[in-house]
Structures are given as C-alpha cells and as structure tokens.
Amino acid sequence: MLIKNDQDMIKNYLEDTSVMPGAKAEAVIIAESQDEIPQILKEASKNHTPITISSGKTGTTGGCIPLKGKILSVEKLNKIININKKNLTATVECGVVLEDLQKALAKENLVYLPDPTESTCLLGGTLATNASGSRTFKYGPTRNHVKRIKVVLSTGEILDIERGKIFAEGRRFETIKCDLPSYEMPMIKNAAGYYVYDNMDLIDLFIGSEGTLGVIVEMDLKIAVKPEKIFGGIVYFNNPKDCLNFVKEVRQISLESKKSGDITKLSAASIEYLDQYTLDLIREKNPSIPKDAKAAIFFEQESTETVEDDLLQQWSDLIEKHGADLDQCRIALTELEDKELKEIRHSIPETINEIFKRTGFQKLATDIAVPADAFDEMMAYYDEILKPLSIHHLAFGHIGNYHLHVNQLPKNNEEKELALKNIKLFVTKAVQLGGTISAEHGIGKIKKPYLKIMYGENGIKEMAAVKKALDPALILNLDNIFEEKYLR
Question: What is the pLDDT of residues 433-457, one digit of tens each?
C-alpha cells in the first residue's frame, strides 16, 4: 500500500463534483491489492480511525469528501479479471473505470448496458450509489446488472455474496444478525437510503449503501451482446407542452414494445429532456441548437439493418405528429454520430460544474423522481416556485423515468439561501406525491436533511442500527446518508 501524509499531495482527494467545502483528512491510503483492504480496515477499527472511501470522485453529493480521519483510495484495484462470453459476465475490481470496461467489452462485441453519465467513474462507486444514466429507462439501474459482490466489512471479514443465495426472513438477516428498516420505498427509480424489502436478497443491501456498510472490492456484472445497430436523435420543440406530450407517447409505445418483445416497433433505450434554459446554457458550445427551441428530447433506439428504415419512419411520424420540425432534428445513424449527440447531453453537467467552481457555491441541484401520474403536477410546481424568481435555473434529465435534475445557479449569498429553501420545498412536494428525493446520485453528505422528510426520524434510526450491526467500530464513510449523531 501507499500512504500519503503531505497535505499538498492529498488535495486531489478532497473534492468531487459537488464542490462541497470543509474537506480534511490526515492521510490517504492507496490500496495496491484486494488483500490489503481487510488489514487496513481492521487497523482503522482498532484505532477508531474514520475511513472515507475514495472512488472516481465523480459523485455529486459529497459522498467521498472526508471530514476527518483517513481516505482509502481504491484507484489501483483496477483489474478486469475475466470476461465470460458464454455466461455473459464480467468479473472486475472496484477501481475499474467504466470507460475502460466498455472498451474491453467492445473488442468482443459486448457491452455493459447501464450507462452512467460520467464515463470516467469507477465501477465500485456505481455500485455504492446504485448509479444509473440515460438508458435506465430500458435497462434499469446498476442494481439490475450485479450478479455477485465481494465486500470487506470494517472488522476485516470478507463476504462473497452471490445473487439469489442469501435472503432475509421478512425484515431480518440471521446470517449477519441484522434487522432491516421498516419503511416502504417508493416503487420508482430510487437511490435514497438503504434499499430494503421483505425477504430481500442480501446483495441488494450493500448496493446503494454508499460505502457505509463495507468496501465492495470485486463484482460480477451482467453484460450483453452489443446491439447490431443503434441510432439516436435530438428533437427540438417550440412548445414545451408538445414536448411533454411527445414524451408520454414515446414512453407508452416503448413500454408496450418492451413487454411484447417486438423489435419492429419503436422502443426507446433512453429518453432525455432539456428545457429552454438548458439549451440556452449550452448553445454557445453547440451553435446548431435552433434559436427558437423551448425544449428538446434526446433519444436512442436499438435496431438492426433489417428494421432500421421502418423504425426511423416511426420516429419521424411521431415527431411530426407532435409539432416538431424534422428539418431541425439531428439524427445519428453511426456510433460516432451518436457519441457526438451524447456529448451535447453530457456537456450540461460539465458546464454547470464549471459555473459552481467559479462561484464557489456548493452544487444546488435536485435528483427527484416521481410516479408517472404525478409528473405533470411536479412540473407545474417547479414553475410555480421558480418562474417568479430571478434565480438562474434549468431542468434536464431522465424524463423517461420522470426523473429530472433542477439546477439553481445563484449569483450571491441571498440567492443561495433562497435556492436552498426551494430545494426543501421541491423534495417535500415530491415525497407528498409518492416520489423520491434521490433517484440516482444517492444521499451522500449534502442531501441528509431531506432523507428525514422521506423516511422520518424512525427510518433514519433504523438505518443507523443496520450500520451499527455491520460496522461496529463505526468508521466507514461517516456522515454519509445520515448524521453521525444517530450512531451514538
């Protein structure tokens, strides 16, 4: 292992894309093999040294920001151990970069279907937060693609957990002597707090636990044969209502096609929304965006040589039906063109992060998803709160899952305080509508106050009890998900 004590040498480990202030740590421990992790954690437990796990530093909620103790970096645990073409499984270490896995799979005409927005993230981090991305609409979040994990507890004990092998009895795991929280999760895309359900699989408790229960060092991931072809497009609308009606019909047709398995029917892999203010923000970098566009949808569709022309016609018919100008749309028929379109979508969070770094403010964004029948009401509420205000704001995201990121970009401290109040209003409304305060980014350190709105004081205490059972020394990723006071 490598140990860095010099503060100048560890500065790079004290930040992520949340721009959260207040980071500090005594040292960084860089593990050079899986075998070192148990000893590192046993030593830290013995000395009651808090350990913050550092993965790719691409998180948005301050999860890898240390407030004390030491940092454990898993960046060197980056082996792609095996790609099994027969069983369609990839065995990888937690420090493998998503982009590197995709490149290795592409050589074998394979693909890892979850598509988190940040391609430089480490796979361990994607499991820790149950990350997702644009293709979650069709394929679901990371959780759906994990077959096995190897996790090291703070005691040094190693658990090798295969999906489908260890189940709870109701809300209790006898194998680890642990009672589960009693709250019910919303039945939508969700990454808020510990994932629990009756008779649940043990593997699901660790996925999305944000490094608070153990260090996932190795995993078996489901992979798939690469689609024969894929095309994407950006559709621009002059009327936001036309855009939302387009989404509803695309979504309905796609869900029906997925259920029937009919590859000749329109079936979106991703449906992404960009509002007028988002388009304005990125127009300088992307001058092809029409000046009068008030909203846009980015979509992807898997196809084959045989059905591609017919699928393109189905998309064209639907686009025209909902009032968009086909001549202004951009359709990508090759992988390179599709990558160029995705870079437009991916440039949004990058541009926003640049703004927050310049202003020095912590990122002020929501990660809310609501049920389908509540989405119109949630959108109207955003407008009701934000339109009368002068705060620069924009909304974009995974509208196929009714999951948007509403970002507020304050210019001064007064606007910052108002933006924080607005976020509390938004998450309260979302919970009232049966939604979640975090659909993909997790809670980290930034969203802790909102989790109580979702699960109540008792739900937080029950989560803390799970952590006490699995991390008795209370050292792992403290202040992630819930405040440290709940562990006393």
Answer: 999 999 999 999 999 999 999 999 9
| Residue 50 banded pLDDT, cuts 50, 70, 90 | very high
Query: Residues 6 or more apart from 301 whose CB is under 8 A from it?
Result: 230, 231, 232, 266, 267, 268, 269, 311, 315
Contact between residue 371 and residue 434 where contact means Cβ atoms under 8 Å apart: yes
DSSP-assigned letter for residue 116: B
Residue 343's pLDDT is what?
Answer: 81
The alpha carbon dihedral of 187, 191, 196, 199 has a sign of positive
CA 300, CA 311: separation in Å to the nearest integer? 11
Rounded Cα–Cα distance for residues 447 and 438 (Å): 8
Determine the Cα–Cα distance for residues 368 and 353; give it in Å rounded to an integer.
19
287 burial (CB, 10 Å; 0-12 / 13-18 / 19+) is exposed
**Can you tell me the distance from the alpha carbon of 17 to that of 62, in angstroms, rounded to the nearest whole number?**
8
Task: For 6-26, write each residue's pLDDT tens digit.
Answer: 888 888 888 887 778 888 999
pLDDT at 338: 80
Sort strands 295-303 and 215-222 into parallel, antiparallel or unpaired: unpaired
Question: Which of 79, 76, 216, 73 lies closest to 152 in space, CA to CA?
Answer: 216
Pairwise CA distance, residues 270 & 223, whole Å: 18
Q: What is the rounded CA–CA span in Å between residue 434 and residue 21? A: 32
Cβ–Cβ < 8 Å for 73, 66: no
At 261, give phi and psi (nearest 5°).
Answer: 75, 15
The domains located in the chain, with CATH, are 2-73 (3.30.43.10), 80-225 (3.30.465.10), 229-432 (3.40.462.40)
Q: Mean per-residue pLDDT for 285-292?
A: 89
Angle at 440 between CA 88 and CA 152, to 5 degrees: 65
Amino acid residing at 326? L
For residue 173, the cross-strand partners are 178
Report percent pLDDT > 90 for the chain.
Answer: 82
Q: What is the mean pLDDT of the chain?
A: 94
Q: Is the pLDDT of residue 58 over 90?
A: no
Looking at residue 350, its pLDDT comes to 81
